[in-house]
Protein backbone atom coordinates (compact mmCIF):
# COMPACT_ATOMS: atom_id res chain seq x y z
CA UNK A 1 0.00 0.00 0.00
CA UNK A 2 2.87 2.36 0.85
CA UNK A 3 4.57 1.66 -2.47
CA UNK A 4 1.36 2.50 -4.26
CA UNK A 5 1.02 5.80 -2.35
CA UNK A 6 4.65 6.75 -2.99
CA UNK A 7 4.15 6.03 -6.71
CA UNK A 8 1.10 8.31 -6.81
CA UNK A 9 2.99 10.90 -4.80
CA UNK A 10 5.99 10.86 -7.16
CA UNK A 11 3.70 11.04 -10.24
CA UNK A 12 1.84 14.05 -8.84
CA UNK A 13 5.14 15.61 -7.79
CA UNK A 14 6.51 15.11 -11.30
CA UNK A 15 3.36 16.62 -12.77
CA UNK A 16 3.66 19.65 -10.47
CA UNK A 17 7.33 20.09 -11.34
CA UNK A 18 6.55 19.81 -15.05
CA UNK A 19 3.72 22.32 -14.65
CA UNK A 20 6.05 24.71 -12.78
CA UNK A 21 8.68 24.42 -15.55
CA UNK A 22 6.06 24.99 -18.24
CA UNK A 23 4.68 27.97 -16.34
CA UNK A 24 8.15 29.50 -15.98
CA UNK A 25 8.80 28.97 -19.68
CA UNK A 26 5.45 30.60 -20.50
CA UNK A 27 6.28 33.62 -18.32
CA UNK A 28 9.71 33.94 -19.95
CA UNK A 29 8.18 33.78 -23.42
CA UNK A 30 5.54 36.36 -22.52
CA UNK A 31 8.21 38.70 -21.19
CA UNK A 32 10.23 38.26 -24.37
CA UNK A 33 7.13 38.91 -26.49
CA UNK A 34 6.34 42.10 -24.55
CA UNK A 35 9.95 43.27 -24.90
CA UNK A 36 9.88 42.74 -28.66
CA UNK A 37 6.44 44.29 -28.98
CA UNK A 38 7.49 47.40 -27.03
CA UNK A 39 10.69 47.63 -29.10
CA UNK A 40 8.61 47.67 -32.28
CA UNK A 41 6.38 50.41 -30.87
CA UNK A 42 9.39 52.48 -29.83
CA UNK A 43 10.97 52.02 -33.27
CA UNK A 44 7.74 53.08 -34.99
CA UNK A 45 7.43 56.14 -32.76
CA UNK A 46 11.08 57.09 -33.26
CA UNK A 47 10.91 56.78 -37.04
CA UNK A 48 7.72 58.84 -37.07
CA UNK A 49 9.30 61.57 -34.94
CA UNK A 50 12.42 61.68 -37.12
CA UNK A 51 10.39 61.89 -40.32
CA UNK A 52 8.21 64.67 -38.88
CA UNK A 53 11.30 66.59 -37.76
CA UNK A 54 12.83 66.33 -41.23
CA UNK A 55 9.63 67.61 -42.84
CA UNK A 56 9.34 70.44 -40.30
CA UNK A 57 12.95 71.47 -40.92
CA UNK A 58 12.40 71.52 -44.68
CA UNK A 59 9.29 73.67 -44.25
CA UNK A 60 11.17 75.92 -41.82
CA UNK A 61 13.96 76.52 -44.32
CA UNK A 62 11.43 77.15 -47.09
CA UNK A 63 9.56 79.58 -44.83
CA UNK A 64 12.78 81.44 -44.03
CA UNK A 65 13.65 81.77 -47.72
CA UNK A 66 10.15 83.02 -48.53
CA UNK A 67 10.30 85.56 -45.71
CA UNK A 68 13.71 86.82 -46.85
CA UNK A 69 12.45 87.03 -50.43
CA UNK A 70 9.43 89.10 -49.37
CA UNK A 71 11.68 91.34 -47.29
CA UNK A 72 13.96 91.93 -50.27
CA UNK A 73 10.95 92.66 -52.51
CA UNK A 74 9.56 95.11 -49.93
CA UNK A 75 12.96 96.75 -49.60
CA UNK A 76 12.87 97.71 -53.29
CA UNK A 77 9.77 99.82 -52.63
CA UNK A 78 10.93 101.12 -49.24
CA UNK A 79 14.21 100.88 -47.36
CA UNK A 80 15.95 97.65 -46.33
CA UNK A 81 15.20 98.33 -42.68
CA UNK A 82 11.49 98.86 -43.27
CA UNK A 83 11.20 95.77 -45.51
CA UNK A 84 12.93 93.44 -43.07
CA UNK A 85 11.27 95.15 -40.09
CA UNK A 86 7.77 94.58 -41.50
CA UNK A 87 8.48 90.90 -42.10
CA UNK A 88 9.99 90.60 -38.61
CA UNK A 89 6.77 92.00 -37.15
CA UNK A 90 4.70 89.57 -39.24
CA UNK A 91 6.87 86.64 -38.04
CA UNK A 92 6.54 87.85 -34.45
CA UNK A 93 2.75 87.97 -34.80
CA UNK A 94 2.77 84.45 -36.27
CA UNK A 95 4.83 83.20 -33.29
CA UNK A 96 2.47 84.84 -30.81
CA UNK A 97 -0.51 83.30 -32.62
CA UNK A 98 1.15 79.90 -32.57
CA UNK A 99 1.80 80.21 -28.83
CA UNK A 100 -1.78 81.29 -28.10
CA UNK A 101 -3.39 78.56 -30.19
CA UNK A 102 -0.75 75.83 -29.80
CA UNK A 103 -3.12 73.31 -28.19
CA UNK A 104 -5.72 73.57 -30.94
CA UNK A 105 -3.43 74.11 -33.93
CA UNK A 106 -0.28 72.18 -33.05
CA UNK A 107 -0.42 69.80 -30.08
CA UNK A 108 -3.79 68.11 -30.72
CA UNK A 109 -3.24 67.50 -34.47
CA UNK A 110 0.34 66.29 -33.88
CA UNK A 111 -0.81 63.92 -31.12
CA UNK A 112 -3.56 62.52 -33.34
CA UNK A 113 -1.12 62.17 -36.23
CA UNK A 114 1.48 60.40 -34.08
CA UNK A 115 -1.05 58.12 -32.38
CA UNK A 116 -2.60 57.27 -35.74
CA UNK A 117 0.78 56.44 -37.27
CA UNK A 118 1.74 54.22 -34.35
CA UNK A 119 -1.61 52.43 -34.33
CA UNK A 120 -1.43 51.94 -38.10
CA UNK A 121 2.03 50.41 -37.83
CA UNK A 122 0.80 48.09 -35.07
CA UNK A 123 -2.23 47.05 -37.14
CA UNK A 124 0.00 46.43 -40.16
CA UNK A 125 2.25 44.20 -38.06
CA UNK A 126 -0.79 42.31 -36.77
CA UNK A 127 -2.06 41.77 -40.32
CA UNK A 128 1.38 40.58 -41.43
CA UNK A 129 1.57 38.11 -38.54
CA UNK A 130 -1.95 36.79 -39.11
Structure, briefly:
By secondary structure, this protein is mostly helical.
Description:
The chain has one domain (2-129). The protein is built from three helices and no strands. It has helices at residues 2-77, 80-100, 102-129. It has 130 residues and is mainly alpha-helical.
| Count of helical regions | 3
pLDDT < 50 runs, ≥5 residues = none
- Helical fraction: over 70%
**Using DSSP, what is the number of strands?**
0
Outline: rod-shaped
Distance between the termini: 54 Å
Query: How many domains in all?
Result: 1
Largest pleated sheet: none
Give the helices and strands as they follow along the chain.
HHH
Q: Which structural class should the secondary elements be placed in?
A: mainly alpha
Report strand %. under 5%
Q: Please state the average pLDDT score.
A: 81
What Rg, in angstroms, do the CA atoms define? 31 Å
Defining key terms:
3 helices, mainly alpha, rod-shaped
List the helices and strands and how they pair.
Blueprint (H helix, E strand, L loop, with lengths): L1 H76 L2 H21 L1 H28 L1
Amino acid sequence: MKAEESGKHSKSQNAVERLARDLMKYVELQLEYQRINSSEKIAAATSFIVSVLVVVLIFLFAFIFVIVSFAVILSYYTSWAIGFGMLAIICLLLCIGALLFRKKLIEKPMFELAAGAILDSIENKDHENA
